[in-house]
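User: I'm preparing a small set of examples for a lab meeting where we compare how different chains pack in three dimensions. I only have the primary sequence for this one, and I'd like the structure in token form so I can line it up with the others. Please keep the answer compact; I'll paste it straight into my notes.
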Amino acid sequence: MSETTKAILVVSFGTSINETRKKTIDVIEESVRSSYPGYKVYRAWTSKMIIRKLQKRDDVHIFTVDEAMKQMIADGIKTLIVQPTHIINGIENDIMKDDVLAYENKFDSISFGTPLLTTTEDNETVIRAVAKEFSNLPEDEVLVLMGHGSEHHSNTVYAALDYTFKDFGYSNMFMGTVEAYPSIDEILKQVKSYNPTKVHLAPFMVVAGDHAQNDMAGEEEDSWKSQFEANGFNVECHIKGLGEMDSIRNLYLEHIEAAINN
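Assistant: Understood. Below is the structure token output for the 262-residue chain.
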């Protein structure tokens, strides 16, 4: 089979912040490209709002999943691996799969790699990666991670991660979400009972985008930084997406490998 008939479609939510995209989505895609030279690598984003914003602001067009599928059909792709950079098997991932499978009859085969947190082993790998990133964290300081959160039932993974951090001996690491449970209210209660000398905030998202820079580290009174400060804590923010970590990128590559061998 010639290489032009095999492709990997990397699907991300997207970001309007170019600096963080370069350090995360671009690097993930580049690692896919270098790891699978026999495949053509395509990009699609699921946030139509971000796609519209980039088109208007930068005159740059990013494919939606639907547009990427049509382009690959036009390019003669027959074997397709789809790898999302999504964190959980949530709403975005479900919609993405439906969009891809609408063109199922145009391909010889379509296989899906799984989102970052799919198995218990995935959860453990990611926890170890984050703990390694913050391995210098003193016992009297805490790390609070901000996940996105979802109304989808898979949102339970965030509470499971919070529990697993503690189970692995990282009693000073906490997992919250912007839009679901555990919320900052639950995390504040836990952090208060820990009574640390300092709170470190970091995004638990592939890109350190709008949520990280505004909802987490912003100066508005409802940002996580402001709320922790209002409760008397000394706060330091770390603006670094998960996609900047080698071990996280490698986990996505493992998911692609599993999809190819499926």
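A couple of notes for your slides: The chain has a mean pLDDT of 96. The chain has two domains: 3-115+244-260, 120-241.

User: Perfect, thanks.
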